[in-house]
Write a structure and sequence with these properties.
Layout (H helix, E strand, L loop, with lengths): L41 E3 L10 E6 L5 E5 L2 E5 L4 E4 L15 E6 L5 E5 L2 E5 L6 E4 L6 H4 L2 E6 L5 E5 L2 E6 L4 E6 L7 E6 L5 E5 L2 E6 L4 E5 L12 E6 L4 E6 L6 E5 L8 E3 L9 E8 L5 E5 L2 E6 L4 E5 L14 E6 L5 E5 L2 E5 L7 E3 L17 E4 L5 E4 L4 E5 L4 E4 L17 E7 L3 E6 L2 E6 L5 E5 L6 E4 L5 E7 L2 E8 L4 E6 L13 E6 L5 E5 L3 E6 L4 E5 L12 E6 L5 E5 L4 E5 L4 E5 L10 E6 L5 E5 L2 E5 L6 E4 L10 E9 L2 E6 L2 E5 L13 E8 L2 E2 L6 E4 L6 E7 L9 E7 L6 E4 L3 E4 L5 E10 L5 E12 L7 H76 L5 H31 L8 E3 L1 H10 L2 H7 L2 E6 L6 E3 L1 H17 L6 E14 L2 E10 L33 H11 L3 E7 L3 E12 L40 E5 ...
Parallel strand pairs: 59-65, 67-69, 73-74, 73-75, 75-76, 76-77
Antiparallel strand pairs: 1-28, 2-3, 3-4, 4-5, 6-7, 7-8, 8-9, 10-11, 11-12, 12-13, 14-15, 15-16, 16-17, 18-19, 19-20, 20-21, 22-23, 23-24, 24-25, 26-27, 27-28, 29-56, 30-31, 31-32, 32-33, 34-35, 35-36, 36-37, 38-39, 39-40, 40-41, 42-43, 43-44, 44-45, 46-47, 47-48, 48-49, 50-51, 51-52, 52-53, ...
Helix pairs in contact: 2-3, 3-7, 4-6, 6-7, 9-10, 17-18
């Protein structure tokens, strides 16, 4: 086993009697005898939780826990609780195979090993899990019957078995077996010494074992000849390198083997034959003093090798604190020096004594009874080594050398007057080295050390208390009926001076009952009066000053009992209820120290101090040491070795630095310097965790629990085994406790209903002396929340809450919004009503305002048309004005009808007439238009000629709009059919109806658009490329008029197949109403709204040739197109197209100089046409002018972004249009002139370097790259440019006003000029410029530049 820690303090015995005296006056402890040995043990057994009282082996592990192997399992002990590990029949693979634990070992890796009669076992110290490691071999039962286990320096385990010696290597799980050295030499235990020799103790002697070869060597003991080798059963190596061997053979005791001497030979050791020869397997151990402790079958031996002395502990039936059994089966000293003895009656524990309180009893008493002889009311160690003790009735004095108490005969302490009366001794006072003063009820007695005689000095007052003044006088005091008071006694004159109690004297003693007396260093006399506080008397005046209980700065209690003055002159007063009071003579103030400051009791009966300045108090609950400097308090009781906790008043004495206290059970004396606290470090562990009252193993410092595992109990222990019941604990659960919870000596803590979260449980402890281990122990806990309290659940709740709040806010805001909307709708309805009224009035007013200028337009035009003085073109222009005025009037009438319908101002006006004739007349008015468009218009009516009443105005508007739509959307070759028939089956109240069906073969309406055709301002095609104009109010007006007169209308249509409208219009019989106007049939004038214009002849007086600019007009309105053409024909050659696609084709074919285009046109709009023109290389030079009714700024920007050169909005002024066109033509002409000058002026830069037009640059590059080729011609150039010859011609002519052939020739000539200037002669230049012959080149060059090449060069040189 490992070496023990050194003991800090020698064990000081509790004396039943005093040793001999010395000249110093102290009681001698130099003789070591039976009375100087600590015989007190604390006992543990099955009553305390031990599994079995028979303890075979003991071990303290590295953590500090104690382990005990018993006859029924292994026990772990933490100072409070035993945890037992026993065989489990239901889990033999993880439990002990046998319950007899014979040996323990902790290896270098902190693993715990135990051997039994069933093999080797490994124990997990944290979980208690047991893993068997049986030996698998022949005779396995003998090999697994194991006595001990030992780890050597090579970290191998050695097992002592019945079969021999077994070596086990834990890392590789391998056993190596070594048979017995002799059949009868059963191996008991092994040991490795510091020289790494391996010793084997057997039933037949001691052997050295060679671990390399497996060879045993017998080491014979020093025995008489013929003696058999003894049985060796235990080893212990002391600090002197002496190996002690225990035996189990009669006639021997211990053997000692000095490892420093050769030869190695065990020597018998048994001083005076006191050592029992029969020892146990684990029964030898040593302490720091060098004592060898030996457990035998007949008691526990403590062997002092230095003095050759042996003391044997055996049970004493009268001593409850003695050893509990003669069979000391196992011994162990823990790291604190505590002795553990395993017996067959449990465990006996003896702590190291570091508080050597020495007790003297007149009548030795091992029990707890207080015998009268041991009561001490006064005591005194004199300077001659005697101890004087008075129990109030008898006086004893110890006599050297035996220190046995001798009673003082009562007659020696009786006065001559009261010789027959008992005189009680209450006080003792030394008189230097010469004698002793004794205080009695009858006065003072003096004992003369030299003569041994007693001399009495009777007094009028009792000498219950004695105190010596600085002058040498003795002051006495007390109260015995009938007298009481105080007095001074002069030892030289033997005279008294009395200060008796006088009841009515305010300056005298306050009470006749005197409880204490002190003559201070200042000469003042302090007197304690019963329940009257303190009195201080000035001996010079005899006056008393009283100090009584009061507020802060006063005494805290008047029940004073004892008084003391320290060397600083501080007065200390002990009270019965107020603890200790301190009086400072300088400040005249009192302060108190009570149980709140740590005193064991507020009943203080004695006070003194020591050399260190500490104040020592005796109380009814033990002794107390108080430090005035640090205010630290340390208490001592019977657990620390005191015979009693009840000390008597003023039974106290200090002799130098030796303190004496009298109690109900004897005298306690000690040197205060030897009373030291146990400051040795000790560990603190959390030993148990119960979750929901179920134990939970502590395998790590982090414990995770479920939310419902929130009732926790922690167990903890400070592994210090000296009075563990006095250990103090404090704990806190971080996250619950704000501060440390002081738990006293309770070593458990409970927490209930913990919330989910992370916690840290911390615990710290103090040993029995109050020394704290602040580091303590801790464990971290995580209690997981339930799924409904996890972060994601709370996130969901938060989202749900936010959603609910948002939903409520949304609901509330929607409600408010709905209320506001309702209010807004109400206001809007009122405003709309007002606006409708305003709009109706506006439409009425504006239409009336429109009618006046229209009348002034239409009437004069009609008048002019009736005249015959105008030629054809003028009449055409007037007709154009007339038709457009009529169309504007129809639009105004429709708007007016809509406004009347909205305002509900349109009434039904019945008229009498023949329906078939009325409808036929309306249809006939469209016949001319149908013929112009090539449409077949057919009208069919069933034969009924009777007159009816109907609203002819509404019928006319309805049928006119429907027939206009049919004619508009029906193309050439199509047909329109109108069918009319009476509906005789639908007659109610004499009202019949007429069904009219209007069908066309036009473009039709798609199914998705059909439901909306009666909506106001709805148009099936609202794009810029729609083919048909319209406002979107015609069918809406029809529907509202039909509804107004009580009819119905429906439509059926198929795209590409045509549309059919079915009307049911109500009529009344003519007889139903007597007086109604007759229907006036409409004049059969052709409908002019969609008439095709008559072609206008262009003026013929202006010659039109190729030099006149060519203008293309792209406009889908035929009349506007015709009008523009007629107005511009005098200045330009005119081309016309009626949609964007046709315009693009004409532009590519004819390459006009300017294109005038509308925006909204069928197939391609004006923007798309502009984009095509400006981004095609053949047409990008053509100027484009957009002429559109879209006058918005965004529309103008869009057109200009597409490349339009100019943008005019409708209506426009012709003079502005003429100017804009003229400017464009002028700009184009200037650009052409510039391009031509590049050829005719050879001094200008080369055309290819400054040309901006991309097409011309491409042409110049082709000419440049093939300039020397005489075969280069127009056809080759057109082929290279992927153009027709005609297109090439028009393109080049429009850019430079040259034909391609002229362009090629002038480009050659211009390059020739550059070559001539560069130094080439005429001949070289001709060929380089692509001319076939120099002569031809010269002729052409002179023709163009008016100079021959030679003259050109000469002229250039002369200029240079």
């Amino acid at each position: 086993m490992g070496r023990l820690y050194l003991l800090l303090i020698l064990m000081i015995p509790v004396l039943p009697e005093f040793a001999q005296t010395t000249r110093s006056g102290k009681i001698s402890t130099t003789q070591v005898n039976e009375q100087s040995i600590n015989k007190h043990f604390e006992h543990l057994s099955i009553k305390d939780g031990l599994s079995n009282n028979s303890v075979n082996c003991i071990l303290q592990d590295r953590e500090g826990f104690m382990w005990f192997g018993t006859n029924d399992g292994l026990n772990k002990y933490d100072g409070y609780t035993f945890t037992s590990l026993q065989p489990n029949p239901n889990d033999r693979a993880h439990s002990f195979q046998n319950n007899f634990i014979s040996g323990l070992c902790e290896d270098h890796t902190n693993r715990l090993w135990a051997v039994t009669e069933g093999g080797l076992h490994e124990i997990n110290k944290q979980t208690g899990r047991v893993t068997p490691h049986p030996i698998q071999a022949s005779n396995a039962n003998r090999w697994n019957y194991q006595h001990s286990v030992y780890e050597d320096s090579r970290h191998k385990l050695w097992l002592s078995t019945l079969g021999g010696l077994a070596r086990y290597e834990p890392d590789i799980h391998r056993f190596t077996l070594y048979p017995l050295p002799h059949p009868q030499a059963t191996i008991k235990t092994v040991f490795e010494d510091p020289q790494h020799r391996f010793w084997v103790a057997t039933w037949r002697g001691l052997y050295l074992f060679d671990r390399a070869t497996g060879h045993y060597t017998l080491i014979p003991a020093h025995l008489p000849p013929g003696e058999q080798e003894p049985t060796f059963i235990a080893f212990y190596l002391d600090s002197q390198q002496v190996l002690w061997l225990g035996t189990a053979t009669a006639g021997y005791g211990l053997f000692r083997l000095d490892l420093r001497q050769q030869p190695l030979r065990p020597e018998p050791y048994n001083p005076d034959g006191q050592i029992n020869p029969f020892m146990y397997l684990n029964s030898i151990h040593g302490d720091e003093k060098g004592h060898i402790w030996v457990g035998t079958t007949n008691g526990l031996h403590r062997v002092d090798p230095a003095r050759q002395q042996v003391f044997t502990y055996r049970p004493d039936p009268n001593d409850s604190k003695g050893i509990s059994s003669n069979s000391a089966q196992s011994l162990y000293h823990d790291r604190a020096g505590t002795l553990w003895v395993g017996t067959d009656n449990g465990i006996d524990r003896q702590a190291i004594v570091n508080k050597p309180f020495i007790t003297y009893q007149v009548r030795p008493n091992k029990g707890t009874a207080n015998l009268p002889e041991n009561k001490v009311v006064a005591l005194l160690p004199d300077h001659n080594g005697h101890l004087w003790i008075s129990n109030g009735y008898s006086v004893y004095r110890t006599e050297p050398p035996t220190n046995r108490p001798q009673i003082i005969p009562p007659q020696q302490l009786a006065s001559s007057i009261t010789s027959q009366k008992k005189n009680y001794i209450q006080a003792l006072q030394p008189d230097g080295t010469e004698g002793v003063w004794l205080g009695t009820w009858e006065g003072l007695f003096y004992f003369d050390q030299a003569s041994g005689t007693y001399t009495g000095y009777p007094s009028e007052i009792p000498a219950v208390f004695i105190s010596r003044a600085p002058t040498g006088d003795l002051w006495i005091g007390g109260d015995v009926e009938p007298t009481s008071g105080i007095a001074s006694f002069n030892p030289r004159t033997h005279r008294y001076r009395y200060y008796k109690y006088k009841p009515n004297d305010p300056n005298g003693l306050p009470d006749k009952y005197i409880y204490g007396l002190l003559a201070s260093r200042t000469g003042d006399i302090w007197v304690l009066a019963r329940r009257q506080g303190i009195c201080r008397m000035d001996p010079r005046t005899g006056r008393f000053t009283r100090y009584t209980a009061g507020p802060k700065g006063h005494l805290n209690s008047n029940d004073v009992q004892t008084i003391y003055e320290d060397k600083q002159g501080i007065i200390w007063v002990g009270t019965q209820l107020g603890g200790l009071n301190r009086f400072d003579p300088r400040t005249k103030l009192f302060s108190a120290i009570t149980t709140n400051d740590g005193l064991p009791s507020n009943n203080v009966v004695g006070i003194t101090n020591d050399n260190a300045g500490n104040i020592w108090l005796s109380t009814d609950k033990g002794l107390c040491r108080y430090s005035p400097r640090t205010r630290a308090v340390r208490n001592y009781g019977t657990d620390n070795g005191l015979p009693s906790n009840d000390f008597l008043r003023n039974a106290i004495f200090r002799d130098r630095n030796q303190l004496y206290f009298g109690s109900l059970n004897g005298v306690v004396h000690f040197n205060p310097d030897s009373i030291r606290d146990d400051t040795r470090p000790f560990p603190v562990y959390i030993t148990a965790l119960n979750v929901m009252d179920q134990p939970r193993p502590l395998t790590s410092n982090l414990i995770t629990l479920n939310h419902d595992e929130n009732f926790l109990s922690f167990g903890f222990a400070a592994l210090t085994y000296t009075q563990p019941e006095h250990n103090q604990y404090a704990y806190e659960l971080i996250g619950v406790d704000k501060n440390w919870v002081q738990n006293g000596n309770r070593h458990f803590a409970n927490y209930t209903n913990l919330s989910p979260g992370t916690y840290t449980f911390r615990v710290k402890a103090a040993n029995s002396d109050g020394i704290w281990n602040e580091k303590g122990a801790s464990i971290r806990l995580i209690i997981h929340p339930p799924w409904w309290a996890t972060w994601w659940a709370y996130s969901f709740y938060a989202l749900l809450t936010i959603g609910a709040i948002w939903g409520y806010i949304r609901f509330y805001t929607n409600r408010i919004r709905q209320q506001q909307l309702m209010e807004l709708n109400r206001r809007e309805a009122e405003q709309l009503k007002a606006v409708d009224e305003l709009k109706t009035r506006f439409f009425s007013n504006i239409t009336h305002e429109f009618r006046t200028p229209l009348s002034l337009i239409m009437s004069p035009v009609e008048k002019l048309l009736q005249e015959s003085r105008f030629d054809g073109p003028t009449r055409q222009t007037l007709g154009l004005v007339k038709r457009n005025a009529d169309q504007l009037l129809r639009l105004i009438n429709q708007l007016l009808d809509l406004s009347k319908l909205e305002a509900h101002h349109m009434a039904i006006s019945l008229m009498r007439g023949e329906i078939t004739e009325f409808v036929h007349n309306l249809v006939e008015s469209f016949q001319q238009l149908a013929e112009q468009k090539g449409i077949t218009l057919t009208y069919t009516a069933d034969g009924f000629t009777q007159e009816h009443l109907f609203d002819a105005d509404k019928w006319e508007k309805i049928l006119t709009n429907l027939l206009s739509n049919a004619m508009k959307f029906t193309g050439k070759g199509g047909h329109v059919t109108v069918t009319l028939k009476p509906n005789l089956a639908a007659v109610e109240d004499d009202i019949s109806s007429i069904s009219i069906r209007i069908a066309d073969s036009g473009i039709g309406v798609s199914p998705e658009n059909l439901p909306h055709i009666f909506d106001r301002f709805y148009q099936v095609d609202n794009s810029q490329t729609r083919a048909y104009e319209g406002t979107g109010i015609g069918l809406a007006l029809v529907k509202e008029l039909v509804d107004l007169i009580g009819g119905t209308i429906s439509a059926d249509s198929q795209p590409g197949a045509g549309t059919t409208f079915m009307l049911t219009l109500p009529v009344q019989p003519a007889a139903a109403t007597a007086e109604v106007p007759m229907v006036v049939l409409p004049v059969k004038e052709p409908i002019a709204m969609d008439q095709l214009p008559v072609a206008v002849d262009l003026p013929g007086n202006l010659p039109v040739d190729d030099q006149t600019p060519l203008l293309l007009i792209v406009e889908d309105n035929a009349e506007l197109s015709e009008f523009l053409a007629s107005e511009l024909a005098a200045t330009y050659r005119i081309l016309r197209a009626f949609d964007g696609e046709e315009g693009w084709q004409l532009t590519q074919a004819e390459l006009p100089d300017i294109v005038i285009s509308d925006v909204m046109m069928p197939r391609k709009d004006g923007y798309e046409l502009t984009h095509l023109i400006k981004n095609h290389p053949d047409t990008d030079h053509i100027a484009v002018v957009i002429l559109s009714a879209k006058a918005a700024h965004s529309s103008r920007i869009e057109g200009l972004q597409e490349g339009a050169d100019d943008y005019l909005s409708k209506p426009f002024h012709f003079d502005e249009l003429h100017l804009r066109l003229r400017n464009l033509i002028s700009r184009q002409q200037k650009l052409r002139d510039q391009y031509r000058q590049q050829f005719s002026q050879p001094d200008t830069p080369s055309p290819i370097n400054i040309v901006e037009d991309a097409f011309l640059r491409r042409v110049y590059e082709l000419l440049e790259n093939h300039l020397s080729d005489p075969l280069l011609n127009v056809d080759w150039l057109a082929d290279q440019l992927a153009m027709s010859r005609k297109t090439l011609y028009r393109k080049i002519h429009s850019l430079v006003q040259l034909n391609p052939h002229e362009l090629i020739r002038q480009y050659r000539l211009r390059k020739a000029a550059d070559l001539l200037r560069a130094g080439h002669n005429a001949s070289q230049t001709a060929y380089l410029a692509g001319f076939k012959t120099p002569s031809y080149f010269t002729m052409v060059f002179k023709e163009f530049y008016q100079k021959t090449p030679t003259e050109f060069v000469a002229n250039g040189l002369s200029k240079a």
